[in-house]
Structure to design on (178 residues):
């Protein structure tokens, strides 16, 4: 396999849209590209998209979506981060860090004080290195047919403002997860 490290464009671009075909360009067309199908969850599409291209191919993506949430007795909003993907042949080159960092730069302009994401346990160390911290509480998320379920994936948060502190208390997302 050729070493693409030196030739990868190291800048992130804002994408006007992100379709299923874009996701397949990065991850292929497998049945479970994010490894979360067994959760049985329905997910929201993101509204803001950031990507990295290499040789006219999309090789990395991160998406954002502003969402309502309750933390303890307070209702607020978070910026949900999701759809983070790096093409298998391009992993280990810092592309996830680049695309997530660029997305968070934009998230800081969106208003909420925190970003939130859901990830599989093996990805927790990656996000920790990027400044995220896991929550120690269950998170409830909405699902179709007015169901409320406990998120089976690991929930992680990061501040978007200096001095922002995540409040204590139970967490409920007033929407489908992102």
């Amino acid at each position: 396999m050729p070493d693409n490290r030196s030739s990868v464009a190291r800048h992130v671009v804002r994408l006007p849209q992100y379709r299923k075909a874009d996701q397949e360009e990065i991850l292929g067309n497998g049945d479970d590209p994010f490894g979360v199908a067994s959760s049985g969850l329905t997910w929201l599409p993101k509204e803001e998209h950031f990507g990295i291209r290499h040789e006219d191919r999309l090789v990395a993506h991160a998406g954002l979506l502003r969402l309502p949430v309750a933390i303890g007795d307070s209702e607020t909003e978070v910026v949900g981060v999701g759809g983070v993907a790096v093409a298998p042949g391009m992993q280990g080159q810092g592309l996830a860090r680049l695309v997530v960092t660029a997305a968070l730069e934009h998230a800081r302009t969106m208003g909420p004080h925190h970003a939130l994401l859901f990830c599989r346990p093996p990805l927790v160390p990656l996000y920790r290195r990027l400044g995220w911290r896991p929550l120690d509480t269950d998170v409830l998320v909405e699902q179709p047919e007015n169901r409320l379920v406990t998120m089976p994936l690991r929930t992680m948060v990061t501040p978007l403002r200096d001095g922002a502190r995540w409040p204590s208390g139970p967490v409920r997302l007033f929407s489908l997860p992102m």
Observations:
- The two ends are 34 Å apart (CA to CA).
- Residues 1-6 have pLDDT under 50 and may be disordered.
- The first helix runs from residue 20 to 27.
